[in-house]
Amino acid sequence: MTEALPKFLKPIQSLPGIRADWVERIPGLEITGDRDAAMRSLRRSHQTAVQHFSPDASWWRAEQIHGTGIAVIPASNAIEASDGLPVMAGVDGLITNQPGHTLAIYVADCGPIWLADAKSGAIGLLHSGKKGTEGNILTAGLAAMEREFGTRPEDVTAVLGPCIRPPHYEIDFAAEIGRQAEAAGIAEFSDCGLDTAADLARFYSYRMEKGKTGRMMALITRDF
């Protein structure tokens, strides 16, 4: 688990009332099964991390089907995931403008994207891998934030977290996300540049570990 806030999250963390975090590989936790088994193994560690991050907030997660669907939180279309906890059905992105809600996205090579609107206080988290990037979930997330909260791209700070990159993957979807951010007119976009496949002591990598791996967790909340 990350001991201190990663430097790459400082653009989000510096915004008043908004906090973000990132949970990496859990040291000493052996994972040898598929995604469902991995999520069951990670449940306790991730619950502890969320409790430490935002003890009084509701915890919201996305089903993550490699699509471009966005859920506005709070919402009511939750289903039970393999770890026994609820997830929002059929979506890969979560947005809210209300305090007291912690949004979470899981990745193990795909890219987590944190979004924060400095003016309205709206926040979001997106799961953007190969398919999500092809579908431009970033634009979908921004459009949902504009529709629901009046967010303008020029007021948005966005951060792309660790994900798989060349030479470990033949498609540079991280670079494409950067191009999408520029085309959308996002005020401040930063890419951490970290490759999940290059550091298995720190990250889980679906490709390098042939699917028998865990998941990192991205978090964001609004305190006020």
Short description:
The protein has 5 helices and 12 strands. By secondary structure, the protein is α/β, with parallel strands linked by helices. 48% of the residues are buried.
Structural summary, described in words:
- This protein has one domain (19-222): CNF1/YfiH-like putative cysteine hydrolases (4-Layer Sandwich), CATH 3.60.140.
- Helices cover 24% and strands 26% of the residues.
- The protein is built from 5 helices and 12 strands.
- The chain has helices spanning 10-13, 35-53, 130-134, 137-149, 173-184, and strands at 18-23, 58-61, 70-72, 78-80, 86-88, 93-96, 101-107, 111-117, 123-128, 156-160, 188-191, 216-222.
- A 6-stranded mixed sheet has the order 3-6-9-8-10-11. The protein has a 4-stranded mixed sheet with strand order 1-12-7-2, with helices on one face.
- The radius of gyration is 16 Å and the shape is globular.
- The two termini are 26 Å apart.
- Keywords: Hydrolase, Metal-binding, Transferase, Zinc.
Count the strands? 12
The general outline is globular
Question: Fraction of residues in helices?
Answer: 10-25%
Number of domains: 1
The CATH homologous superfamily: CNF1/YfiH-like putative cysteine hydrolases
Query: Major sheet: order of its strands?
Result: 3-6-9-8-10-11
Low-confidence stretches: none
In round numbers, the mean pLDDT is 96
Keywords: Hydrolase, Metal-binding, Transferase, Zinc
Family: Belongs to the purine nucleoside phosphorylase YfiH/LACC1 family.
GO molecular function, one term: hydrolase activity
Organism: Luteolibacter pohnpeiensis
